[in-house]
Amino acid sequence: MPVNPELQGRVFPPAPPYLVGLEKVREFSRAVFASHPINFETDAALAAGHAGVVAPPTFAVVVQEQTLAQLLSEPDAGIDFTRVVHGDQRFTYTRPIVAGDELTATLTVTSVKTLGPHAMVTAESTMVDATGAHVVTATSTLVVRGDE
Amino acid sequence: MSTPIFDELTVGDVIAEREFPLTRDSLVRYAGASGDFNPIHYRDDVAASVGLPGVLAHGMLTMGFAVQPVVDWAGDPARVVDYAVKFTRPVVVHPQDGALVTVVAKIGALDEGVARVDLTVSFDGKTVLGKAQVRVALGRR
């Protein structure tokens, strides 16, 4: 089944809120070779004026993942997970993610393009905090390989 | 750590260079931290069965560590306001020897207190990320 072009413009229901845990931020920071104290120590983060330990710039992918799972499991999407290659990725921050945040992500499919047998799906996950204020938007382009 | 002064920067300045020796352990650690348990990132048999040259590093792991020299230079991870990459080549991680990835970070543009830092991320003499750009808000003096 090819990728459904009518996905373009579709907005998914918000994913369940994600609670950003301090130890998760530290674990993720270690995994991406972060070494800055603001990624690990609450005191250092507070001293720099942050509300808690700051997550590394790519941490938002953990929250975005929930929304991409919604897209991949959409019955009429026609996206075969085993044929998906990550083409590009972007994070645009209004403010950094900090430990203690409760983030709600909403996915919008912004574009579906076909290139021969392949399709390129661009999906944007907009994340807001518990007050509804924007924190970060994560944008992925997924390349779905078709039959050659 | 001090904050770089925006008005003292020049396009073309190399602001950081670093080598990242990856091992299979790095991939397992990232799988657990990120929740991405695709077995092509830790099982040779699965990687081979889908025609890959070997177990690959997660693209998001490479994106994740490549920005760290910029974070250290900026003095605060919160100064990174925008970060985008294209995934152009895989990083194959050998079971014994691992993989050595190098990152060179250079000032690409300067605009209204925001420095665009362009990353050259290479493995085995070839770049693995395309158009890897980090926007760092430094403010004006």
UniProtKB/TrEMBL annotation, chain A:
<dbReference type="Pfam" id="PF13452">
    <property type="entry name" value="FAS1_DH_region"/>
</dbReference>
<dbReference type="InterPro" id="IPR029069">
    <property type="entry name" value="HotDog_dom_sf"/>
</dbReference>
<dbReference type="InterPro" id="IPR039569">
    <property type="entry name" value="FAS1-like_DH_region"/>
</dbReference>
<dbReference type="InterPro" id="IPR016709">
    <property type="entry name" value="HadA-like"/>
</dbReference>
<comment type="similarity">
    <text>Belongs to the UPF0336 family.</text>
</comment>
<feature type="domain" description="FAS1-like dehydratase">
    <location>
        <begin position="16"/>
        <end position="137"/>
    </location>
</feature>
<protein>
    <recommendedName>
        <fullName>UPF0336 protein D9V28_14740</fullName>
    </recommendedName>
</protein>
TrEMBL record, chain B:
<dbReference type="Pfam" id="PF01575">
    <property type="entry name" value="MaoC_dehydratas"/>
</dbReference>
<protein>
    <submittedName>
        <fullName>Acyl dehydratase</fullName>
    </submittedName>
</protein>
<comment type="similarity">
    <text>Belongs to the enoyl-CoA hydratase/isomerase family.</text>
</comment>
<dbReference type="InterPro" id="IPR029069">
    <property type="entry name" value="HotDog_dom_sf"/>
</dbReference>
<dbReference type="InterPro" id="IPR002539">
    <property type="entry name" value="MaoC-like_dom"/>
</dbReference>
<feature type="domain" description="MaoC-like">
    <location>
        <begin position="14"/>
        <end position="96"/>
    </location>
</feature>
